[in-house]
Amino acid sequence: MAEFSNTFPAARGVQSGRPCYVAMCPLRLIPKIFIFDGQEVPPELRAQRILNRTRIPDIVSYLLDNPSDYTLSGITASIDGQVSFEPSTDTGPGQNLGLLSIPMDAKILINDGQHRREAIVQAIEQNPELGYDNIPVLFFIDDGLKRSQQMFADLNKHAVRPSDSISTLYDHRDSLSELARYVVKEVKVFSRLTEMEKSSISNRSSKFFTLSAIKNASKALLMKGKHDPVTEEDQRLAVEFWNAVAENMSDWQLALEKKVATCDLREQYIHAHGVMLQAMGQIGAHLLCKPKQQWCETLKGLQKIDWARANSDWEGRAMHHGRISKARSSVVLSGNYIKQQLGMPLTPTEQEYEESFK
Description:
There is one protein chain. By secondary structure, this protein is α+β, with helices and mostly antiparallel strands. The protein folds into two domains: 5-157, no CATH class; 164-357, no CATH class. It has 15 helices and eleven strands. A hairpin with a 2-residue loop joins strand 1 and strand 2. Helix 6 (175-186) crosses helix 9. The chain starts with a strand and ends with a helix. It holds the Pfam family DndB. It comes from Kushneria marisflavi. This is DNA sulfur modification protein DndB.
């Protein structure tokens, strides 16, 4: 097998004194030439983490649902074998563009991208046409297990997942993200006071809500699943509901008119936090089953609620030991309290939470 090789058009370079190569590899070759070391061996003898198979279906669905509009970042791999690089003859001496030849008996170990590899394998099985697309691959020469482990650590050391808010802002495929952006645009108090990039608000920020909190609350309001479509009627209903809520929140209006500092409201009140928005979304899901005039009348009761953190009724619900909680139980118990103040009945599940709380 040493007499045979896989050859790729590639660019040659140097990182930390070591040669490296960048090539475009057809997706159909990924399962044939790239090895994922998934054997049951101790972590100290592996150069990769164990494959998390729960991540694979989402990537596979992404590829299959967007065959003409997907984006895959490159794979980083180490070659355990001798390679040869032949510069292009018509580009002059010292040229770093040419052909990279990798012996077929060489092991090519993925340092970064093993989940993409497995997803590509499964996606091609269902849609072979994807196999003719390409993915960039960064090749290094394998310097042994220690070096491969260090490469894995270095590649993942500075990886930072983007905030939910900025992911919502930039995701134009997700119907719930589109809903959140529409709601923020059409609800005046949201349009002026929403943090669009971060999922948490700093003490000095003039913002009051986060885009991710509005998305989650609107999802609960319309009882939508992750992949459920959102119609124009759904969008209109969400805007009407949040406008009605805002009309009955006098502190929100004061913040909108800049008559009170948002940082003071966040410090002193419950209604300035995502737990309240999420609770209101779940309450709205029950209200929207009724005629608009009726649920608008019910929401007027929000004006009479004491939203102050100093109100001991919030302890154990929206707060634990004086600190705001985002836990599922906090959302339900906060919603229970708001429902009680609005004269709304609790569902059996909500009643169970209430009995446990008491």
